[in-house]
Write a sequence for this structure.
């Protein structure tokens, strides 16, 4: 990408006084002095009274000082140059802790560490006091966080938009083997990294009715009698690595529009005095409220519209402040929809342009379809959001009208090109008439976007040929692939400082910004001394993980065993249950004496089940019941341990990934869009065992067939076996080990006090068709695991393959991903502030 010349417009006085970030940094106090100053002047404490949390806050204030001028300069430079910007709309941003990441990206981490040591503190201990920002759940939110990091590092003018959740998803604890959801009050001690912007509040409307009004402009539709919520923006700086750019993440918090009723309060009507406030502020309290009830569904749609409406208003206000010509909108704005959650933005943009700014429909629609792009993250139709027409009609009546009009014009176009094909019209309609009349949000996103991308080569091909095959016929060329990536700043530089130090010693430090340079270590896989040093790094990371596991669970594990790790959202298609079947198989072999020379193994699970997903929560309980029995069986000893690591979050992942030896990526072929945990583990020296699903296909291409453990049915084979009439009983009856394992689960071997506890799991596998083909892949999975165990016994061979995995991860940098978005989809150029 070319770099824009700097604007020749004169700078404001504000910029002239700050000059630039380099000049500002010269005026900074030495970090030890800055720490003491903040302790005194920001916290009002002295050394003798300071707690570790106080030192975290002083460290955060000190690093924030280094961020602020760069942030202001970046923002004002974008404004003065009036450059094109990317707006990334995502319901999740799983950004994790910011202190260490910001210090590393800004280049002040060594000084901060030294400064804290001078006052008797350790950076690692101080950083532990920062709570993870509870702004996401899993891969979708972490991908968004990696992307905003890469956009800043690559000097892409960009803003992320999301929700400032009060409690986020939930804090998971395990009690009696079961998941318990607790509020994650991450804002209890304030968020030092955010800045409230009350001058940019927006009004978001709900309910009401639509009337037809005759004005001097003609007949118009007006949305009236609405209820309003105030969207309060909180800005979080996102520093790039090795650059002065600091981009913005704007998060919206819902506030009541209605003023506090003092008269009612003074009369003793305390409930009436705050009437409406709780309902309004509930919108931004919790990520993904349980939608099992109608009120839960309404709240989820409210959340989505709330942040989309506020963001759209904000984007357009910024545009019209500096651009008088609406036709230049696509030259200044690119909006990326991260999955279907923000898809209502298509209708909202039409509402704003047509109803608020009074553009003609055709002109507005042309602009809309030039500025939106949509990323799909799932192949499963049941995961594509739909909303009942009745709910839309009640909550967003004007937007339902707009969606009807978009759909009417779209279907007219389709009928002109494919006359008489009523089946096609029904399949692609934005309104699903076959399941109780529902709005298909993915269809709205596809119709309203100029580009739709999948997130791995296999996923994107399946989008074109299965899920969106009809749309691909209607819009040839609209669908493309952009394989996901991860930021090496967070997932190597920060998460694995020992490996970073080893790599830097041999190939220099440029790989943090240009991951392609990591390929230089490939020849070192043949160097015995480097392999030894590499093993020492892995051993230290495993010791760190073993200590954390002991702290969190009370389970002592053997750090010399293979650490077999599956950490991701708990879901049937991700097949944690297949892993459990293998664990029980190993247990049976040990108990029967068949595994005298078995490689010691610690199987580590982590992940959250959605609160309303009962079967996923049963899988968590089964894992813990199996763990309790195996971990306390004296015959097993250290040969096999099972651990469920509670409350999986970014800070936990930063310890789990570097400590992993084996990366479990075992979803049914054709179900996982991409995955990024597979990339993070491989970059940290873990070997992958997996199906040819998602990005596993491309990881295999990069690392080589001999350096990955691939097993199981392929996507075409999955389709074929289902079409021919899959019968799980054939596998159950045909494999004695498998039959024994399922019978143990079903007859209460792991739940003596409640023998039928896991009957639903057995029924899912045998009586309900084993939808995700666990039994069909079981034998191949067990065989692949035997190959894993054999290779692990040869430490030189294992470390050689692990080094090659690290060396060949260059493709999976989120910088490469963002470069493709910028060039091919957003058409935006780098701009150095």
């Amino acid at each position: 990408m070319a770099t824009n010349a700097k604007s020749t417009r004169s700078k404001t006085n504000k910029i002239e006084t700050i000059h630039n970030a380099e000049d500002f940094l010269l005026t900074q106090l030495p970090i030890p002095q800055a720490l003491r100053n903040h302790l005194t002047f920001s916290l009002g404490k002295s050394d003798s009274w300071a707690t570790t949390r106080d030192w975290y806050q002083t460290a955060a204030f000190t690093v924030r000082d280094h961020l602020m001028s760069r942030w202001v300069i970046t923002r004002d430079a974008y404004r003065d140059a009036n450059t094109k910007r990317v707006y990334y709309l995502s319901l999740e941003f799983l950004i994790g802790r910011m202190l260490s990441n910001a210090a590393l990206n800004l280049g002040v981490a060594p000084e901060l560490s030294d400064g804290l040591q001078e006052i008797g503190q350790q950076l690692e201990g101080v950083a532990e006091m920062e709570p993870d920002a509870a702004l996401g759940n899993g891969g979708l939110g972490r991908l968004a966080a990696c992307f905003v990091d890469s956009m800043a590092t690559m000097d892409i003018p960009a803003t992320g938009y999301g929700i400032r959740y009060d409690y986020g998803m939930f804090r998971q604890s395990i009690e009696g083997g079961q998941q318990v959801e607790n509020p994650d009050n991450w804002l209890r001690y304030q968020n030092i990294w955010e800045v409230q912007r009350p001058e940019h509040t927006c009004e978001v409307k709900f309910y009401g009715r639509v009337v037809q009004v005759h004005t001097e402009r003609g007949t118009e539709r007006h949305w009236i009698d609405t209820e309003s919520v105030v969207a309060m923006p909180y800005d979080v700086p996102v520093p790039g690595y090795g650059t002065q750019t600091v981009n913005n993440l704007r998060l919206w918090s819902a506030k009541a529009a209605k003023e506090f009723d003092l008269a009612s309060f003074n009369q003793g009507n305390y409930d009436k005095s705050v009437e409406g406030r709780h309902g309004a502020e509930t919108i931004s309290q919790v990520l993904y409220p349980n939608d099992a009830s109608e009120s839960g569904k309404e709240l989820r749609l409210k959340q989505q519209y709330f942040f989309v409406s506020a963001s759209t208003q904000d984007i357009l206000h910024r545009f019209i402040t500096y651009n008088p010509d609406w036709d230049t909108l696509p030259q200044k704005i690119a909006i990326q929809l991260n999955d279907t959650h923000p898809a209502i933005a298509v209708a909202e943009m039409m509402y704003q342009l047509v109803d608020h700014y009074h553009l003609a429909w055709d002109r507005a629609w042309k602009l809309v379809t030039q500025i939106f792009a949509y990323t799909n993250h799932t192949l499963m139709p049941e995961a594509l959001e739909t909303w009942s027409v009745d709910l839309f009609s009640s909550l967003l009546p004007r937007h339902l009208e707009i969606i009807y009009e978009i759909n009417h014009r779209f279907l007219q176009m389709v009928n002109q090109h494919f006359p008489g094909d009523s089946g096609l019209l029904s399949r692609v309609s934005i309104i699903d008439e076959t399941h109780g009349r529902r709005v298909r949000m993915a269809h709205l996103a596809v119709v309203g976007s100029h580009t739709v991308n999948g997130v791995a080569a296999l996923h994107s091909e399946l989008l074109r040929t299965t899920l969106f095959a009809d749309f691909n016929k209607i819009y040839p060329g609209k669908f493309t692939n952009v394989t996901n990536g991860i930021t090496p700043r967070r997932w190597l530089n920060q998460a694995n400082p020992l490996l970073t130090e080893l790599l830097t010693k041999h190939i220099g430090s440029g790989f943090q910004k240009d991951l392609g340079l990591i390929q230089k270590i490939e020849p070192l896989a043949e160097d015995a001394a480097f392999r030894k040093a590499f093993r020492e790094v892995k051993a230290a990371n495993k010791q760190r993980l073993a200590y954390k596991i002991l702290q969190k669970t009370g389970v002592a594990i053997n750090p010399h065993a293979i650490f077999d790790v599956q950490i991701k959202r708990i879901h049937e298609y991700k097949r944690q249950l297949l892993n459990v079947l293998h664990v029980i198989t190993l247990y049976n072999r040990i108990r029967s004496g068949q595994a005298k020379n078995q490689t010691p193994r610690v199987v580590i699970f982590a992940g959250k089940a959605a609160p309303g997903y009962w079967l996923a929560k049963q899988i968590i309980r089964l894992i813990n019941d199996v763990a309790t029995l195996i971990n306390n069986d004296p015959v097993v000893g250290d040969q096999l341990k099972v651990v469920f690591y509670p409350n999986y979050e970014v800070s936990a992942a930063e310890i789990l990934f570097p400590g992993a030896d084996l990366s479990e990526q075992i979803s049914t072929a054709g179900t996982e869009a991409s995955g990024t945990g597979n990339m993070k583990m491989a970059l940290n020296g873990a070997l992958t065992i997996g199906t040819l699903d998602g990005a596993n296909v491309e990881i295999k291409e990069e690392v080589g067939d001999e350096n990955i453990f691939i097993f199981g049915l392929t996507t075409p084979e999955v389709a074929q076996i289902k079409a021919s009439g899959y019968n799980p009983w054939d596998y159950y009856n045909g494999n004695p080990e498998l039959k024994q394992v399922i019978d143990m689960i079903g007859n209460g071997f792991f739940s003596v006090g409640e023998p039928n506890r896991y009957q639903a799991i057995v029924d899912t596998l045998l009586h309900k068709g084993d939808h995700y083909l666990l039994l069909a892949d079981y034998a191949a999975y067990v065989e692949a695991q035997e190959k894993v165990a054999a290779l692990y016994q040869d430490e030189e061979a294992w470390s050689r393959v692990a080094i090659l995995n690290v060396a060949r991860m260059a493709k999976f940098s989120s910088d490469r991903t963002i470069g493709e978005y910028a060039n091919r989809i957003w058409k935006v150029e780098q701009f150095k502030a």
Notes: The longest helix spans residues 52-81.
